[in-house]
Design brief:
Elements lengths: L6 E3 L5 H4 L7 H5 L2 H16 L12 H14 L5 E5 L6 H10 L17 E5 L4 H7 L8 E7 L5 H18 L7 E5 L5 H8 L4 E3 L13 H9 L4 H14 L9 H14 L5 E6 L5 H15 L1 E3 L5 E4 L2 E6 L8 H6 L4 E10 L14 H4 L6 H18 L4 E8 L2 H22 L7 H13 L6 H11 L6
Parallel strand pairs: 2-3, 2-4, 4-5, 5-6, 7-10, 7-11, 11-12
Antiparallel strand pairs: 1-12, 8-9
Helix pairs in contact: 4-9, 5-9, 5-12, 10-16, 11-16, 12-16, 17-18
This protein binds 5-phosphoarabinonic acid (PA5).
5-phosphoarabinonic acid binds next to loops.
Length: 467
């Protein structure tokens, strides 16, 4: 499968291509060859001691077996598979399905979906979204996968209450058949509920953080219920892990991309990282990346406890759509961004542009070309226009979109993020800022033990500037 490897092209990150003011010299990048060796040792130790768990997810054979058994035995019993979760318990699920299934998957007939259920991921609690959702599903024919590592996130807990109540009303005591819980193996209320009510459950390994969990049962169960080849997904991830198991910076796409982004941020003040997908189906991976990069690297304290203020702001963009929305700013606005293009060499479907009778210059040049040629030309044109304005960019090139290449992409970016954490000298695996918001929400809704939180908020809210 070597020829199906994703590749990383960093030509336009370099001063040779875009000039020294906004591009990096080779000498600057090479300075990181030695530290890369040291960071590689740390990453290896984290993997071997299992301090950090995402590296080894492709090899969790027992989990894989259980997921397969469960999906094989249940996929054709339900019309809908609905994920209740948020953040790391939802974004990868959305991306797996939207990249690896038909773009209009839920609109296909059951036969066209080969008997697999429609898949929905409810990662918000807008009451209109949730209440109106009830119009389009039959709860009796729906399996709800409640996913929460902590087992206590307010949004997921609220959704759980709504849908369990509904199921109880429709199914009585049998409601538990329509629920599957994915959570910590021991801790949290969801685990306790799964045990008390004997609800089918899967584990999120304690050493795997939410945003690094897509290759655990968090994402795999959704993949299985969408008929996606989990083995291939994991083998792509395992192959990327192998490829990145080298301290040699220029042979390691994840380390190299981390160093380039780090230098762009810290040396050239490009503190915005735009991931622009030239594939509608890969676009939700840019969304997943937003969380991974933002939550992992946006920190105010370094590993020694010293105050810092680091982290690039990740932004997602869609080619060609955003050429007509964002690219004016990207080419002529502040030169504070570094761009990553997600590109695809061979699309699963393509179409030749038909002939149209007459002599119309705006149509002539297109006729007989493939739509993918236009798409590709527009990507290269945008890249060129940016480089002409000294805007740095790189490409992550998918030979095609498949389980195998998507698996590689996931592992590359998870390794890259962990490595970037070492470069920034921060903890890439905690999220105190998210936890602070969670605590404040608990306080506002009167959860026991959060009264102090609420006092402070109410005090602040007295002083609002409103016209
Ligand atoms: O990456 C993270 O840890 C977070 O984004 C979580 O995934 C998110 O807050 C949801 O948490 P939980 O899975 O505990 O419900």
């Amino acid at each position: 499968m070597k020829n199906k490897q994703i590749t990383f092209d960093y030509t336009n990150m370099l001063a040779d291509a875009i000039g020294g003011e906004h591009g990096l010299s080779m000498a600057e990048v090479k300075e990181y060859e030695e530290p890369a060796g040291e960071y590689h040792r740390i990453m290896k130790a984290d993997r071997e001691t299992e301090r950090i768990g995402f590296f080894n997810l492709p090899f969790h054979k027992q989990t894989l077996r259980r997921i397969k058994e469960y999906t094989d035995g249940n996929y054709n019993k339900f019309e809908n598979f609905v994920v209740l979760g948020i953040g790391g318990s939802a974004l990868g699920n959305i991306a797996i399905v939207s990249s690896l299934r038909h773009p209009y998957y839920n609109l296909l007939s059951g036969k066209e979906r080969r008997g697999y259920p429609r898949v929905f991921v409810l990662d918000n609690i807008d009451p209109e979204l949730i209440v109106n959702f009830l119009d389009i599903i039959n709860p009796k024919k729906t399996l709800f996968n409640v996913i929460s590592k902590s087992g206590s996130t307010a949004e997921t807990a609220a959704q759980f209450l709504i849908f369990v109540d509904l199921l109880k009303k429709k199914l009585g005591k049998k409601f538990t058949r329509n629920i599957v819980i994915t959570t910590d193996p021991e801790k949290g209320d969801l685990r306790a509920i799964s045990e008390e009510y004997k609800i089918q459950s899967f584990d999120i390994p304690p050493n795997v953080g939410g945003r690094f969990s897509v290759l655990s049962s968090v994402g795999l169960l959704t993949a299985g219920f969408a008929g996606i080849n989990i083995n291939l997904l994991l083998s792509g991830a395992a192959d990327m892990l192998k490829r990145c198991n080298t301290p040699i910076l220029f042979k390691n796409p994840a380390y190299l991309n981390a160093v380039l982004h780090y230098l762009m941020d810290m040396k050239l003040r490009k503190n915005i990282s735009v991931m622009m997908s030239y594939s509608s189906q890969l676009f939700s991976w840019a969304d997943w990346y937003r969380q991974l990069w933002a939550e992992s690297l946006g920190k105010n304290t370094d590993l020694q406890g010293k105050p810092v203020s680091v982290g690039q702001t990740p932004v997602n963009a869609l080619g060609v759509t955003d050429q007509h929305s964002q690219v004016q700013l990207y080419t002529e606005g502040p030169n504070d961004k570094v761009f990553t293009f997600l590109t695809v060499e061979k699309y699963r479907k393509d179409i030749k542009l038909p002939k149209f009778k007459g002599d119309y210059s705006s149509l002539d040049y297109l006729q007989g070309k493939r739509l993918s040629q236009l798409f590709d030309a527009e990507m290269r044109a945008t890249e060129y226009a940016l480089s002409q304005q000294q805007r740095p960019s790189c490409r992550v090139i998918f030979p095609n979109i498949s389980e195998y290449t998507v698996g590689q992409f996931i592992m590359m970016y998870e390794i890259q993020t962990a490595f970037a954490g070492l470069l920034y000298n921060i903890d890439a695996f905690d999220q105190p800022g998210v936890e602070a918001g969670k605590r404040a929400t608990y306080g506002l809704l009167g959860r026991d033990g959060y009264a102090d939180e609420v006092k402070k908020i109410l005090e602040k809210e007295k002083k609002r500037a409103v016209v």
